Amino acid sequence: MNNTIVIIAQESADRIDALLAQNVPGLTRSAAQRLLDAGAVSVDGRTVKKNYKCSAGERIELSLPETQETELSPQDIPLDIVYEDEDVVVVNKPRGMVVHPAPGHPDGTLVNALMHHCGDSLSGVGGEKRPGIVHRIDKDTSGLLIAAKNDNAHLKLSAQLSDRSLSRVYEAVVRGSFREDRGTVDAPVGRHPTDRKKMAVTDKNSRAAVTHWEVIARYRGYTHIRCRLETGRTHQIRVHMAHIGHPLLGDHVYGAPSPDKGLEGQCLHARELKFIHPRTGEPVHLATGLPPYFLDVLKKLVPLG
């Protein structure tokens, strides 16, 4: 039996295969193209080709095939479970752990660990039997990440991610000082025009991206900030902070090329997660403390005032 995901296009001129890949967790652009070729996607009730460009307000329906087996294998990797019930599991991901298998990281990922922890109680998406990772965080970003344990939960949480009712709050240490105590970066993010491994603020082939930030503490040459995502683009906080002249401490991709305060990789932690429970309809608010690496960085900084 197929599962149907409904997406309302928020912007015009997005290719439908790209829009699907960005809004359906676990679905790659190539997988979206295969579903489009198979007629599994409709826009306002009509089937379209993979190069179709959407208009704002159009209703897109995607019929996902039945879950199938995959070669992914469960691995007994310890997990820091913050919340779990029959529908969802929220994990405090450690820094350095990759979320899902990818080139160069075939195993040892959060997906492998969740498969061992949850057994058969995991949602399937995109035609594969794999944990329903609803949103992702980078390898060197630590913090809260939610996975769905059944298809109903996955579809409802994906809808919350799309309509922005699933809220995520991060803490970071950035270079430099801010004149203001809070602000907003509203700048579109897309693939870097010359380096395909990076993202950038660009008007070409990009999507709207909004990050709200506020100062937690000021240090000599650095600032500890809180960021609330209004959208969830790849590397959004890292790109936005670099764009306004405050790259994250330790971020070799968008900031300094050498180690900073002994840290290899960005100082970024997903500290809070809010969502509506897919079964009960009740709000769930989860938070976690700052991890040791983050606290160690703060100890090395010199407070101002």
Summarize the model shown:
The chain is an alpha+beta fold and 305 residues long.
CATH superfamily of the largest domain: Pseudouridine synthase
Structural class call reads alpha+beta
Main sheet, how many strands, which sense, barrel?
10 strands, mixed
User: What's the average pLDDT?
Assistant: 88
Rounded to an integer in angstroms, the radius of gyration calculated over CA atoms is 20 Å
Total DSSP helices? 6
CATH class wording of the largest domain: Alpha Beta
The share of residues in extended strands comes to 25-35%
What is the number of E strands?
A: 19
Helix content: 10-25%
Which helices and strands appear, and what pairs or packs with what?
Elements: E1 3-8, H1 16-23, H2 29-37, E2 41-43, E3 46-47, E4 59-64, E5 81-84, E6 88-93, H3 110-118, E7 124-125, E8 128-129, E9 132-133, E10 142-148, H4 151-163, E11 167-175, E12 182-186, E13 189-191, E14 199-201, E15 206-207, E16 210-219, E17 222-229, H5 236-243, E18 268-276, E19 283-287, H6 292-300
Parallel strand pairs: 10-18
Antiparallel strand pairs: 1-4, 2-3, 2-4, 5-6, 6-10, 7-8, 9-10, 11-17, 11-18, 12-16, 13-14, 13-15, 16-17, 18-19
Helix pairs in contact: 1-2
Describe the structure.
- With 305 residues, the chain is of the alpha+beta class.
- The chain folds into 3 domains: 3-64, RNA-binding S4 domain (Structural Genomics Hypothetical 15.5 Kd Protein In mrcA-pckA Intergenic Region, Chain A, Roll), CATH 3.10.290; 68-160, 2-Layer Sandwich (Pseudouridine synthase); 169-269, Pseudouridine synthase.
- It is built from 6 helices and 19 strands.
- The strands form 4 sheets. Strands 5, 6, 9, 10, 11, 12, 16, 17, 18 and 19 form a 10-stranded mixed β-sheet that branches. It has a 4-stranded antiparallel β-sheet with strand order 1-4-2-3.
- Strand 16 and strand 17 form a beta hairpin.
- The longest helix has 13 residues, at 151-163.
- The protein is globular and about 60 Å long.
